[in-house]
Design brief:
The complex is a heterodimer of chains A (362) and B (337). With 362 residues, chain A is of the alpha+beta class. Chain A folds into 3 domains: 2-123, no CATH class; 153-217; 223-357, 2-Layer Sandwich (D-amino Acid Aminotransferase, Chain A, domain 1), CATH 3.30.470. Chain A is 31% helix and 25% strand.
């Protein structure tokens, strides 16, 4: 089962990869000769449009999902990929906000219970696993225990800690939020990107008491990495934002003309540690962020338990959708993904620039 | 309380009272000027720090110390806004436009300006079109070396960059590194590939739906300030010798100039007045779209056939329609402020 909102581009890519492996989408492209059935369902359809029923009678249990067009015996599901599920939504007819919230909570708890009974493999994990692993305080501690290099880090809402951290970092300090969330300033959506702390920021230290923040010394970077772990597979993309003023301190500004994306060959021990960390925090998938310093040190920043990978595939050419499809179909034994990644890396690093400047027409 | 302590306390009170928004800066300056007039010895000066990508501003008050030197006073109030939120930026800070959720940064837009076609469209429309094409063509398939080289060659030819030295000089002038140039060319190559494939995909259908647009039409028409009147084609040709007689000197291409065109066009590319006109019948004089008058006639018309040239033209027209539909359906948000 792909659990995701309709229109999710990542799910489309993985579905295409599954189809290349002989799978078919239930209710859309039923094959003549069998093949693995794939159900694409969004928990946002529940309880508004779908019905889920769990019955325990005579010592037997039945778990049934009725989407309105399909009736699915949930016990037959072998693997679940939580890509971008919307989260339970009450029917439009339920208009009172408190009633909608109540219905949403009942539905969430119901689904958590039903999912707990499935004998299925989960990617990245069940909702509770994702939430726990995504917590920066939790996974940073595990990363340290596994021997990753991490920046000195303070999580705090103590105003006094701001200037202390600033001085400890010799005035090269960054601040981040502990969890991303939406908020507005003057009625307009704002974002809290990684903030390079200046002396000006210290003058409003009293505001720190209102919510915790993450403080770390600014780590000099040769490149940043987004490492995608799918089961035992580890695919790394480097992000060189040094040419972009907008994205230099936080590549999520996506200034693509000035940011270079490319495959990155991780040292074997770092790759092994990445896979181990993801398994250790209870997941089968995660996107890990690193900085590679000019001295070649791999500094772990954070783990995103359902972190984006589309740009890694599109712009760095790494076959993440194939890796996910392989994992979901349990076909990870032929080394095909690593080979594809290696070939793509060779192709992308062959010094084409000089040839383009020289011209092929002369 | 000493004078200095009183001045500092009063200055802090002033700073805490100022509205920390760009829209409040003028009022803040007036309040600071009034305060400075009451504390002339301090030689006070309000300094406004406008944060990029945020409506929030910071204020400092510079004061002379009685014993010499400067005091810089900052006094952000406790207004209950958490620190990270106070230092956040607008979600589209540094972006010029968002098209269907794809954001274009100001540097990206400036890069796009280098490759605008100059066709009959505003730069705004072309930037939007490039976004739509970039999103549609971003299929993850690598661009082949030959395609990349052909794109680079065409790009260089278009700018008179005949050798490596001139290309590198152009890159230096544009502030592009080798890798950025490669990425830039790859983006153009990707859009070209998408366009080529889309045109090929749509050509047959477009031709079948509108074969009349792709008839080959031989026609003659004359435009100018003077009305040319003719009863038939022979008269029209006869009249051409006498139009544009002695008169005042005009700028090149001025409406007053007489322009005679004899050529073969696709039906849809003819001046509107001639489209669909039966061969041999004189049309006009009619108001010409660019000013002045048009008189002309279709000489012959060959119905459309699905040959390579016609399919190319149908593909181009179909693509223009496809792009116009995407543009009309797109969610476009400009971030001018």
């Amino acid at each position: 089962m792909i659990m995701s909102a309709r229109g999710d581009g990542a799910a489309e890519r993985v579905l295409a990869a599954l189809r290349r492996r002989g799978a078919h989408l239930v209710g859309a492209d039923e094959p003549a000769g069998g093949g693995t059935p794939v159900l694409w369902w969004d928990n946002g359809d529940y309880p508004g449009r779908s019905r889920v029923t769990a019955t325990f009678t005579g010592g037997e249990r039945r778990l049934v999902l009725d989407t309105g067009t399909l009736s699915v015996d949930l016990s037959r599901i072998t693997a679940v990929w939580r890509s971008r599920p919307s989260g339970p939504q009450a029917a439009a007819a339920v208009t009172d906000p408190s009633h909608r919230a109540h219905a949403g909570l009942q539905a969430e708890v119901m689904l958590d219970g039903v999912w707990s009974l499935l004998d299925a493999r989960w990617l990245p994990g069940r909702r509770a696993d994702e939430l726990r692993a995504h917590n920066k305080v939790f996974h940073l501690a595990r990363a340290i225990e596994l021997g990753f290099t991490v920046p000195d880090t303070t999580y705090t809402n103590d105003p006094a800690a701001l200037a202390d951290a600033y001085e400890a970092a010799d005035g090269r300090l960054v601040a981040k939020q502990i969890a991303s969330d939406r908020f507005q300033v003057d009625g307009v959506q704002h974002r809290a990107y990684t903030t390079v702390v200046t002396r000006r920021h210290l003058t409003s230290r009293h505001r720190v008491r209102h919510e915790p923040i993450v403080l770390q010394p600014y780590v000099p970077k040769a490149v940043e990495l987004r490492v995608i772990v799918v089961g035992e597979r580890v695919l790394a993309a480097e992000i060189d934002a040094s040419g972009s003023r907008a994205a230099r301190d936080d590549w999520r500004h996506y200034d693509n003309d000035r940011v270079r994306y490319a495959p990155h060959a991780l040292p074997a021990d770092v790759a092994r540690r990445c896979a181990r960390l993801v398994a250790d925090v209870g997941l089968t998938y995660a996107a890990l962020d690193f900085i590679v310093t000019p001295g070649g040190e791999y500094v772990f920043l954070e783990l995103n338990s359902n972190g984006a990978w589309g740009f890694v595939e599109l712009w760095a050419g790494l076959p993440v959708s194939d890796a996910i499809a392989d994992w979901l179909m349990d076909e990870l034994t032929d080394g095909r993904v690593n080979k594809l990644a290696d070939e793509r890396m060779d192709e992308l690093t062959d010094g084409r620039v000089n040839k383009l400047a020289d011209g092929g027409e002369q | 309380m000493t004078d200095l302590a009183e001045t500092l306390a009063s200055g802090a009170a002033l700073l805490r009272s100022l509205q920390r928004r760009r829209s409040g800066v003028a009022d803040a300056r007036r309040a600071a000027d009034a305060w400075a007039a009451r504390h002339r010895d301090a030689n006070a000066r309000l300094v406004v720090d406008r944060r990029p990508g945020s409506p929030v501003v910071d204020y400092d008050l510079l004061l002379d110390h009685p014993d010499g030197g400067t005091i810089a006073l900052s006094a952000p109030p406790e207004d209950g806004v958490p620190w990270l939120i106070d230092h956040s930026t607008h979600w589209a800070a540094g972006h010029l436009v968002s098209v269907d959720g794809v954001h274009v940064s100001v540097p990206q837009a400036l890069t796009m300006l280098r490759s605008l076609s100059g066709r009959d469209a505003s730069p705004y429309q072309e930037i939007v079109d490039q976004c739509l094409l970039a999103a549609a063509g971003d299929d993850g398939e690598p661009v082949g070396a030959a395609d990349l080289q052909a794109t680079a060659d065409e790009f260089r030819r278009g700018r008179g960059l005949r050798d490596r030295a001139s290309t590198l000089a152009w890159m230096a002038a544009a502030g592009m590194s080798g890798e950025q140039f490669e990425a830039y060319i790859e983006g153009i190559a990707r859009r070209r590939r998408f366009r080529r494939e889309k045109e090929a995909e749509l050509a047959q259908g477009h031709l079948a739906a509108a074969p009349g647009d792709f008839a080959r039409v031989r026609a003659v028409w004359v435009t100018g300030a003077e009305k040319v009147v003719a009863g038939d084609v022979a008269e029209l040709f006869g009249a051409l010798g006498s139009v544009g007689g002695p008169g005042s000197i005009g700028e090149p291409g001025a409406v007053g100039d007489v322009v005679v065109t004899v050529g073969v066009r696709w039906e849809s590319d003819l001046p509107e007045a001639l489209r669909g006109a039966p061969p041999g019948r004189v049309v006009g004089p009619e108001q010409a779209p660019g000013g002045g008058f048009l008189t002309g006639a279709v000489l012959s018309r060959t119905p459309a056939v699905a040959d390579a040239e016609t399919l190319e033209a149908a593909g181009r027209a179909a693509f223009a329609c496809w792009l116009a539909e995407r543009r009309a359906a797109a969610t476009i948000e400009w971030h001018w402020s």
